[in-house]
């Protein structure tokens, strides 16, 4: 179980380094993100994860992506006078892919459940 969680966390390294490099999150905030994601991944890997675990993880990732977008807009606004362009990067698409992956895992786990 721990190996699978560690593998999923290692796949996030590029995204987290990009967030740090662009100045969207501090190192301390990134440590907190890793800690929260590790907790959520362990919850989803236990023998009988709850639907609420998946929903809480999706909500966390959605809020994190919204915060990333707000900070990105603020940085772009602050640097409008310079000629520096903000190119799309790994961190721009990784959160959407992550949320879709969590949804896929939830749907696979709760195939016959159509209630909310």
Textual characterization of the structure:
It is a single chain. The protein is an all-alpha fold and 116 residues long. The protein contains 5 helices and no strands.
Average pLDDT for all residues: 90
Whole-number radius of gyration? 16 Å
Name the helicity range.
Answer: over 70%
Question: What's the helix count?
Answer: 5
Q: Report the sheet-strand fraction.
A: under 5%
List how many beta strands DSSP finds: 0
> What is the H/E order?
HHHHH
Low-confidence stretches: none
End-to-end Cα distance: 28 Å
Biggest β-sheet: count, sense, barrel?
none
Shape estimate: elongated
Structural class: mainly alpha
Question: Key terms for this structure?
Answer:
elongated, mainly alpha, 5 helices, 116 residues
In short:
It contains five helices and no strands.
Helices, strands, pairings?
Blueprint: H1 2-10, H2 13-21, H3 27-45, H4 51-78, H5 90-109
Helix pairs in contact: 1-3, 3-4, 4-5
């Amino acid at each position: 179980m721990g190996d699978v969680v560690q593998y999923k966390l290692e796949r996030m390294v590029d995204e987290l380094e990009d967030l740090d490099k662009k100045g969207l999150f501090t190192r301390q905030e990134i440590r907190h993100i890793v800690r929260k994601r590790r907790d959520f991944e362990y919850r989803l890997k236990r023998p009988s994860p709850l639907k609420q675990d998946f929903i809480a993880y999706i909500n966390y990732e959605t809020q994190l992506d919204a915060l990333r977008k707000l900070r990105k807009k603020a940085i772009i606004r602050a640097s409008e006078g310079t000629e520096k362009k903000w190119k799309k990067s790994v961190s721009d698409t990784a959160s959407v892919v992550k949320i879709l992956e969590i949804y896929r895992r939830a749907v696979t786990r709760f195939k016959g459940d159509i209630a909310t």
